Amino acid sequence: MISPAPLQSVYLRDLRLATAHSLVARASAGGMQLPNDSPTQYLQALIDGLCALSLRDPLTGLANRRHFRSVVEREMDRVARSGESALMLMLDIDHFKQINDEHGHIAGDRVLQSVAQTLSQGIRPMDTLARYGGEEFAIVLPMCAAAFGQSVAERLRESIESTPIVISPGLSLQVTVSIGGAFALQWIRSTSALWTERADRQLYLAKSSGRNCIQIEEPPDSTVSAEEKSLLFGPLFEPSLDDNDNDNEIELDVNTDIASQVRKPSDD
Ligand SMILES: Nc1nc2c(ncn2[C@@H]2O[C@H](COP(=O)(O)OP(=O)(O)OP(=O)(O)O)[C@@H](O)[C@H]2O)c(=O)[nH]1
């Protein structure tokens, strides 16, 4: 959802009730009416509105970097538990400084809003798109199989390249993006910083190979064998007739090398 107008930044310690009210009302399209049935309901709605605002980039209405980080943490946890794939894409507008220099900062802002809108139209509701920094965007795509990574990124790249951005009646601009991507490491608890770094490294490669292109890291081979996966998620061995026999128990510490942590009956 793209916000209708940029919101100003407010220092929390300077925040007054009236400012909070107008910020929350203005942030919602059409100016939301805060409930006035009771002071409690009014204040709760105000707090909810401010929390939502604190997770959003004011210029584009996308998730901000703080929100993105928490989504990445959650997704990494899910991938480590389920072994499903998740892709992180980092996208950066090419030669954006030139747009600011030639057409002014307001035109630059308009480009950022348009790119945000085009990208948000090209992803699934379950994906999270964020403005990661100045002219850099990031997307987490849960349950994105390795085989689809390149085509998803290509669709986004192509949609940006083919969408003219109207700045004023006589001026329309066309921009391109470079895209880097990396898949989350399955079965391994990594860190959000490491995953982001890997995607960022690919973005750097895309920039240095000429821009307007995509670089996605080869999905690493899982360190867990098929046999170990089935030990984690389903009985591989015939269940014992002896109810007290707990040979099939698995002890797992996912904080370290998983392959060496899976205990099989024959290891004892
Ligand atoms: N209009 C506008 N410009 C911004 C904003 N945030 C960052 N920028 C500008 O984005 C530009 C980024 O420039 P560079 O880092 O040199 O990147 P670039 O020109 O896109 O070059 P490459 O990324 O190498 O293709 C700088 O000029 C920043 O001032 C913003 O919110 N609005």
The CATH class label of the largest domain is Alpha Beta
H/E element sequence:
HHHEHHEEHEEEHEH
What is the first-to-last residue Cα distance? 56 Å
Spatial strand order of the main sheet: 2-3-1-6-7
Bound molecules: guanosine-5'-triphosphate
CATH hierarchy: architecture of the largest domain = 2-Layer Sandwich
Low-confidence stretches: 1-5, 236-268
Number of helices, where a helix is a run of at least 4 consecutive DSSP H or I residues: 8
Our count of domains comes out at 3
CATH fold-level assignment of the largest domain: Alpha-Beta Plaits
Strand pairing plus helix content: what structural class? Answer: alpha+beta
Q: DSSP strand (E) fraction? A: 5-15%
Shape: globular
How would you explain this protein's 3D organization?
With 268 residues, the chain is an alpha+beta fold. The protein has three domains: 43 residues, no CATH class; 152 residues, Reverse transcriptase/Diguanylate cyclase domain (Alpha-Beta Plaits, 2-Layer Sandwich), CATH 3.30.70; 45 residues, no CATH class. The strands form two sheets. It has a five-stranded mixed beta sheet, with helices on both faces. Strands 4-5 form a two-stranded antiparallel sheet. β6, α7 and β7 form a beta-alpha-beta unit. α1 packs across α2 and α4 crosses α5. The chain binds guanosine-5'-triphosphate. Guanosine-5'-triphosphate binds next to β1, α4 and α5. The site of guanosine-5'-triphosphate (GTP) has 17 residues, from β1, α4 and α5.
